[in-house]
Amino acid sequence: QLEESGGGLGQPGGSLRLSCSAFGGFFSIDAMAWYRQTPGDQRELVAAISRRAETIYADSVKGRFTISRDNARNTVVLQMDGLKPEDTAVYYCNTGYYSDALYTPSQYWGQGTQVTVAS
User: What is the mean pLDDT of residues 30-58?
Assistant: First the structure.
């Protein structure tokens, strides 16, 4: 089970923080990631982080978002700074695999948390 928290309403240029914790049966998670989805669009990778803290970012969030994780707690955090209206989406946590700078999602997803950026 993946439980997300955070999100909500943020202002353009402002910050929000998303957190996701893995419970029950998630041992030695290889990588964790955040995806986002808007109505009518496919879910897209926002950021991913390996157990060794190697990271991947979508071009649209580079320099604004930071992903981090606590391996001992199976928790991943997405710090979102410099928010833009186009960051508005439902954000989903995922566990998966990291290899050769590529992230492969597993079938385990959080329930999603809404992020809305508006003034």
Answer: 95
